[in-house]
Amino acid sequence: MSYWLFVIIIPLALGLAATAYVNNQLKKYSNVRSVSGITGREAGERMLAAHGVYGVQIHRGAEGQDHFDPRTNSISLSPSVYDGYSVTAYATACHEVGHACQYAQAYGPMKVRSAIWPVVNFAQNTWFYVFLAGLLLASTAPYMGQTLYTIAIVLYAAVVLFQLVTLPVEFNASHRAMDYMKGVGLPQGETAGAFSVLRACALTYVAAALASLLQLLYLLSMRDR
Question: What is the mean pLDDT of residues 73-98?
Answer without folding.
Answer: 96
